[in-house]
Amino acid sequence: MLRSCTAGLRSIWALRGRREGAPRLSMDLQPARRLFSTEKVIHKDWALPNPSWSKDLKLLFDQFMKKCEDGSWERLPSYKRRSTQESEDFKTYFLDPKLVEEERLSQAQLFTRGFEDGLGFEYVIFKNNDEKRTVCLFQGGPYLQGVPGLLHGGAMATMIDIALGSCTGGAVMTANLNINFKRPVPLCSVVVINSQLDKLEGRKLFLSCNVRSVDEKTLYSEATGLFIKLDPEKSST
Ligand SMILES: CCCCCCCCCCCCCC(=O)SCCNC(=O)CCNC(=O)[C@H](O)C(C)(C)COP(=O)(O)OP(=O)(O)OC[C@H]1O[C@@H](n2cnc3c(N)ncnc32)[C@H](O)[C@@H]1OP(=O)(O)O
Predict the structure, then answer these.
(1) Is 157 in the pocket of ligand 1 (CB under 6 A)?
(2) How many helices (H) and strands (E) does the chain have?
């Protein structure tokens, strides 16, 4: 597996920055062009196939895209930055200007989307609104290694948090995340995270998920999460 990962890493390096339509940033670009390129990267939807996606990931993606045709499922787009509206919504809860300088905030990016193609978190989430559940297809790249050849548990926890969060809506925060890691996840493999909203109790959303291999034979993790809808009357800081 390590050997195949090394080969994967080599081909990933060969593909660096070649996500279809992705601008290449280099130091010799003129400032105006650099700014334009950066804008394109920020507004790009990253939950779409790129050359680093394995056959398994592409196949599952195509299957779920078919399910989207009758409107029962939808693919959730994913950006490096939250929309201006979403950011404004969250800002109302974090009013203290000393907390994060505005300038720093303008550089902020969703950290799962901060890696080059194939090296970090490659994922797409599909949502079934009627059934209050989502399916996240996730391929963890070589920069997410923990124990040699295996995905870091923190990387898995991050994806579980995002997958559970995708079953919620509006301004929520993770209050509790409980994960049972049952089997280690091979680096560069594809896993499927099935998440659902189990119960809504006032501002509390109780969610659960499982993480399985593509053939569904291996159960890697099970998790539950408590998310809290933020109270507009309270500042969280
Ligand atoms: C397109 C979209 C796709 C999705 C992708 C998204 C991408 C981004 C994804 C990024 C994802 C990033 C995600 C992240 O990284 S979120 C970052 C990690 N999370 C935090 O930093 C949260 C820190 N905590 C807080 O801010 C507050 O504690 C919150 C806001 C959570 C609640 O403070 P608030 O003052 O508002 O509420 P309350 O204290 O009155 O409590 C209310 C009720 O809740 C119950 N309670 C509270 N805590 C717990 C607990 N631990 N276990 C059990 N119960 C708990 C409490 O008993 C009470 O119950 P009841 O008495 O009413 O019965």
Answers:
(1) no
(2) 6, 7
